[in-house]
Amino acid sequence: MKTVEPAPAAPSRREQGPPVNPVKRARPVRTNRDWAHGLLMSAPAVAGLIAFVGIPFGYAVVLSFYNVRLGSPLEPTFFGIEQYRRLFTDPDLSGPFLRALLNNLTFAVVVVPLQTGLALGLAILLNRKLKGIGLFRSLFFMPVVFPMALVAVIWRLILARSDEGLLNSALHAVSFGNWGAFDWLGDGATAMASIIVLSVWQGVGFQMVILLAGLQQIPGELYEAAELDRAPRWQQFRHVTLPGIRGTLVFVAMLTSVLSFRVFDQVYVLIHGGGLDEDATRTVMYQAVTTAFDQNNIGQASAITVVFFLIVVALTLIQRRLVRPDNED
Amino acid sequence: MATTRAPLRRFADYAVLGILAFIFVLPVLYLLLGSLKPSDEVLNGLTGFLPTHLSFDNYAAVLDALNSDSTGYFWRFMGISLLVAFVVVTGGLFVNSMAAYGMSRLKWRGREAVFTLVLLLMLVPFESVAVPLFYMFNDQRDTIFIQAVPFIANAFSIYQFHTFFRSIPPSIEEAARLDGAGPWRTFFAVIVPMSKPVFASVAILTFLMQWGSFLWPVLMVSDPSVRPLPLEMSVFQGQQPPDWGQILAFGVLLVLPVLIVFAFFQRWFVQGVASSAVKG
């Protein structure tokens, strides 16, 4: 990657520095001073990370072994692995949770290849020296800056169930009135597909930019050589482009799969007032939030959180595995 | 043969790009047009795209509708979002760059351990600490403090600064040090001014993430007097019956600040995203 070049700063020649330090002689002195300074400089951020990430994370694990409820007069009681047993095997409680896991999995299995493939296609299209290519890049990237809460609302209109909905009336026009009005969000069969489409629309620009940077690292000579060999475009793609961005591609795919397990905003907004089918689209995070917030069941929500984290870590470790060999050669 | 095909190919490229871009931008176009049309003409099939009866009435109506203690005030939602984003971005630039400098350019015992800790914490997504944080800070609900402070220290920002500072040649610091500047002075007077690119891309990335923040406000904020814009978007769109013109006008106002930032600084932004990811 083009490492951002620091500006060629002139060595500061300050007219009046601080009073010249008499102890300018030895290294050990400076290292000693550095010790305190380095620690002091790092302290605020590290303290913040420990307070707001490290401790809460450990606390989540602890809470998941207790029966804790918010606003309950009862003292928290130790629960062992009961929360986890309930999540996975209790006939009353495991239903929504396992459904959420399955939904998340479905979402990931569809979105990862779809979004990565689309991003790669766009990146290749945009990796040209054409006039105005920058404008096209911006257009495809633009949805990334849209808050998900807004994206959900826009698509709520596009997918509205009445025959006045944008997609419905477009289908109506195309089929000469033969296709009825679909309830895209409310119908369990299409609800998840709707969430997938709007999520890909919002997110694909992000992956595209990363892949574009990867493509630009492939030396142009490789393509010139392929041209000389009269290799058709498809061959160039297979033998030059794909090997050249293999590492980036794996990275993007894994990043997308981690992101796809974090899905929450759009599902929450559309279930609360958008008529989205709840059971077909609830995700693991949605489940954690409703368990903590609507049911005040902190212990159970923490257990969901821990399961969520284990999935994300597993995906991250797989990513490391897959990316590393490529970095070495 | 190749030469005769070139213009044709170029034309095909433009055609494909143009069609794709058009489809891609349709939802944004619909948002813009809808926000300017009378509410009953928005959800109206394909005619929703016709620019009929355009006016800014919906914008005035939003400001009018969100103008009491029970509904909250529009400018207050906006103010809360801006304030929280400001605190997170400026506070974050300060503490994270300082920490990264301490960990990359000063030599002290234990710095490797501390940096490893930062890298490990980078793996913990916010989602997996949201529930315990919600429980720990339950008495801080509905404050600006709890919306902003947990997000100031950011492991990923530290990592981005760290990567950049590491690439600065040591001779520059040596010169400053020989002039008698201590590490603090060296950092603020020499390193910071020459690190504008990384400050810009971290700032913009942080702002973008913060502006759309939704999960945390859902858990922590119920009082309209401290509610940020995206959460209000969710509340506002849930009203019955929905007033589509107003909802879309609200949406435009929600995305406008971040679009402006994007339009002016997109180079830094795209560079920041791409470089961090490719290096990652």
Automatic annotation (TrEMBL), chain A:
Entry-linked InterPro entries: ABC_transporter_permease (IPR051393), MetI-like (IPR000515), MetI-like_sf (IPR035906)
Localization: Cell membrane
Protein origin, superkingdom: Bacteria
GO annotation (BP), single: transmembrane transport
Keyword list, A-Z: Cell membrane, Membrane, Transmembrane, Transmembrane helix, Transport
UniProt key word 4Fe-4S: no
Gene3D superfamilies: MetI-like
The keyword Heme appears for this protein: no
Protein family (similarity comment): Belongs to the binding-protein-dependent transport system permease family.
Name of this chain's protein: Transmembrane permease MsmF
Naturally occurring in which organism (per UniProt): Streptomyces himastatinicus ATCC 53653
TrEMBL record, chain B:
ABC transmembrane type-1 domain boundaries: 78-265
Gene3D superfamilies referenced in this protein's UniProt entry, alphabetically: MetI-like
Membrane topology: Multi-pass membrane protein
Swiss-Prot/TrEMBL keywords: Cell membrane, Membrane, Transmembrane, Transmembrane helix, Transport
Top-level taxon of the source organism: Bacteria
Entries under InterPro entries matching the protein: MetI-like, MetI-like_sf
Biological-process GO terms, alphabetical: transmembrane transport
Main subcellular location of this protein, as a coarse class: membrane
GO CC field: plasma membrane
Subcellular location: Cell membrane
One Pfam family matching this protein: BPD_transp_1
Residue stretches spanning the membrane: 12-33, 73-101, 113-137, 143-161, 244-265
The keyword Transmembrane helix belongs to this UniProt entry's keyword annotation: yes
Family that this chain belongs to: Belongs to the binding-protein-dependent transport system permease family.
Name of protein: Sugar permease
Organism: Streptomyces himastatinicus ATCC 53653
